[in-house]
């Protein structure tokens, strides 16, 4: 067997009553079966004051030998034994001096730090207050931007506005149509199962029409737009923040709220009511398909019942909510984008947060609208 392939060997030699010499032979590399460092601990008898090394038989080494020696250094330090490293190879001796020259900095480990309940409650309260401050600051700046727009002083490019209008309007029609048609279809089937018990399947038209124009058309369209457009707003603005484009705009004296946020909020606030109208029509169409094909309701009967069931109050309630939902989706998307961190990973976090925040706000707002409309008798 060649010398460089010799297995690592560990031996001990006494040089006097107070010195223990560790004899190393063979190849000390990670892929080898290295001797257990506990054997060194067993040899550290009381009365020893010096630990030396004899590495003349070492034919090769890597970090495996360094790991073993660091363990020997720790054992010697714990037993207050002086180290004599002159017997180690020159390169190993230099690395050991470098590794043990600077002690480990306190606080750099991954130690588990236990915080008190008051500390955690206080930290969460401070974070919540800072989050609320950022939200109100954003809303205040958005209001100022809208005020400057209506007074003709806002600085943004109209071409950007039309691009966002197309992205949030025409390009969203396919997904809104698919979701709305399926929702109308589901409502018709659910209503038919219950109403058939009373021989009143004709009222499926009333159920689908009212449900779509009052609730489902607005809320489903808002949720779809939150996942599609709100996340896109957050990702776009977050990417611009990571690439320091927003900082460049501020350096040039251009308000990011007017140049970036205002066109997006204007476009979505205008397009969402139109999308809700489209969603209402497609949803009712889904109920019509089910009624004609499975419930023996004619086209004329379905249309007559739908027109009779939907009055102006029901129709307008969905449109009123759609305007607020548009503001919520655009605000949450742009807010999370402007709050994005400075790394690429933060862009994904901002997009996810925009969707979660947007959908939560939509549901809460719809519940508030339900209470208000009930009080008003709408």
TrEMBL record:
Domain of life: Bacteria
Assigned keywords, A-Z: Membrane, Transmembrane, Transmembrane helix
GO molecular function, one term: phospholipid transporter activity
Pfam families attached to this UniProt entry: MlaE
GO cellular component entries: ATP-binding cassette (ABC) transporter complex
Transmembrane domains' residue ranges: 135-151, 172-190, 265-292, 312-335, 347-376
InterPro entries cross-referenced by the UniProt entry: ABC_MlaE_roteobac, Permease_MalE
Similarity section: Belongs to the MlaE permease family.
Name of this chain's protein: ABC transporter permease
Source organism (scientific name): Ruficoccus amylovorans
């Amino acid at each position: 067997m060649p010398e460089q392939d010799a297995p690592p060997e560990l031996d001990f030699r006494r040089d006097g009553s107070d010195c223990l010499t560790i004899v190393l032979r063979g190849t000390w590399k990670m892929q080898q079966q290295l001797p257990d460092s506990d054997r060194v601990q067993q040899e550290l008898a009381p009365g020893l004051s010096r630990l030396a090394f004899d590495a003349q038989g070492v034919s090769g080494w890597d970090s495996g030998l360094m790991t073993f020696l660091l363990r020997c250094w720790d054992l010697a330090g714990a037993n207050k034994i002086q180290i004599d490293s002159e017997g180690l190879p020159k390169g190993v001796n230099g690395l050991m001096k470098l590794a043990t020259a600077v002690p480990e900095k306190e606080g750099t480990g991954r130690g588990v730090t236990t915080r008190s309940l008051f500390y955690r409650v206080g930290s969460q309260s401070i974070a919540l207050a800072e989050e609320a401050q950022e939200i109100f600051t954003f809303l205040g700046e958005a209001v100022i931007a809208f005020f400057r727009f209506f007074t003709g002083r806002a600085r943004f490019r109209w071409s950007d506005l039309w691009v966002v209008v197309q992205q949030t309007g025409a390009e969203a029609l396919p997904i809104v149509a698919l979701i709305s048609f399926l929702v109308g279809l589901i409502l018709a089937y659910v209503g038919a199962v219950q109403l058939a018990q009373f021989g009143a399947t004709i009222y499926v038209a009333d159920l689908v029409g009212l449900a779509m124009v009052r609730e489902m058309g607005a809320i489903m369209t808002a949720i779809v737009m939150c996942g599609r457009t709100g996340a896109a707003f957050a990702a776009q603005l977050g990417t611009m923040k990571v690439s320091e484009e927003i900082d460049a705009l501020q350096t040039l004296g251009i308000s990011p709220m007017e140049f970036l946020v205002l066109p997006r909020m204007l476009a979505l606030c205008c397009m969402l009511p139109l999308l809700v109208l489209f969603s209402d029509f497609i949803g009712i169409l889904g109920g019509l398909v089910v009624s004609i094909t499975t419930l023996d309701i004619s086209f004329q009967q379905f249309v007559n019942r739908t027109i009779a069931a939907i009055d102006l109050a029901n129709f307008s309630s969905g449109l009123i909510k759609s305007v607020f939902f548009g503001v919520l989706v655009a605000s949450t998307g742009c807010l999370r984008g402007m709050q994005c961190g400075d790394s690429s990973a933060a862009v994904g976090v901002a997009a996810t947060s925009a969707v979660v925040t947007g959908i939560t706000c939509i549901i809460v707002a719809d519940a508030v609208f339900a209470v208000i409309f009930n009080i008003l008798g709408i």
